[in-house]
Structures are given as structure tokens and as C-alpha cells.
Amino acid sequence: MQTSKDFLHIFLDMGDALLNSGAEIFRVEDTLNRMGYACGAAQMNVFVITSSIVITMEFPEEGARTQTRRIRESGGNDFTKLEQLNDLSRRFCNHPVPAAELRKEFDKININRTKPLWKLLGSLLAACSFAFFLWWKYSGCCCSRIWGCSDLGITAISSSGMHE
Questions:
Q1: Three-state secondary structure of the chain
Q2: Is there a contact between 103 and 10 (Cβ–Cβ < 8 Å)?
Q3: Which residues are CB-contacts of 26 (< 8 A; sequence separation ≥ 6)?
Q4: Which pairing describes strands 52-58 and 64-70: parallel, antiparallel, or unpaired?
Q5: Each residue's pLDDT tens digit in the chain (164 positions)?
């Protein structure tokens, strides 16, 4: 018999991954609520803000259990990962599986991290494109490259935990 304890940590990880992939707050709350009811919870309460997730689950034969997760990083937008997480939640809601199997599926999706080189190239492309369409000059394009690299560096440093 599955209990809220079995699912709570997986749901917190899933909510964290959804937020860090660019999902909006309501979508994260709705997804976690649906998944909780699909696995047999009698009552689900999910509260999400950009820096915290609070989930309370209650199964019929146990009391309410609440877990809170502080969200310490923002991951930007990763629409591929977001689509994979949404697909996992839909499949789970249609055919609930044990917590161990859900964890295994989630870990397959969550292991995929964007490589820093691709982020750098994406930042450079975005910055140069912006400069090209606004300034139409080579010098503006060079300035935007410098800005794109420095912006990526600042973002990398701030999300690496060096500020703590």
C-alpha cells in the first residue's frame, strides 16, 4: 500500500523541476494536485510560489503529512524537459504506478542538464541577433557578444552557489 511519504519527495522534486524548466505557478500546482489524487490521496493541498513549494497529502488511513521545499535556483526555460515532465504527469494520472517506478521515470528526465557550451552559444546568438536587428552595425554586434558572455558569466556565478 502506497502512502503519502512514498510520494511526497517525488512530488516536491517534480514541482522543483517544473518550476526550473519554466512552468507557471498555476500549472505546477495543478499538476501536483492531479498526481496526488491519481495516486489515491483523499485530500491534496499544494501551494507554490517562485521560491517555495508546500504539499499536504492525506491518504484515507493516515493523517495529513506536509512537506516544504525551498527553491534556491531558477533554471530559466527548458521546454523539452518541461514537455517530458508534463508527459510523465499525464501518464501517471491515467495509469498510476508505484512511487519507485515514478521516481525511476522522473530521474531519467531530470538527469538531462543543458551543457554550458550550448548556453554560451545560445546567449551569443540571442545577443548578436538583438544587436543586428537594432543597430545593423558590426560594432554593435561585438558589444552584444561581450554583453552576452558577461551576462552568462554572471548568471553562472550566481546560480553556482558561490554567493552563499
A1: CCCHHHHHHHHHHHHHHHHHCCCCHHHHHHHHHHHHHHCCCCEEEEEEECCEEEEEEECCCCCEEEEEEECCCCCCCCHHHHHHHHHHHHHHHHCCCCHHHHHHHHHHHHCCCCCHHHHHHHHHHHHHHHHHHHHCCHHHHHHHHHHHHHHHHHHHHHHCCCCC
A2: yes
A3: none
A4: antiparallel
A5: 566 788 999 999 999 999 998 899 999 999 999 999 999 899 999 999 999 999 999 988 888 999 999 998 877 788 889 999 999 999 999 999 999 999 999 999 988 666 666 666 777 677 666 666 665 555 555 665 565 566 555 555 555 444 34
Q: What is the residue type of 39? A: C
Q: What angle do CA 86, 5, 42 make, to 5 degrees?
A: 75
Q: Record the pTM.
A: 0.71
Is the Cα dihedral 136, 140, 141, 147 positive or negative?
negative
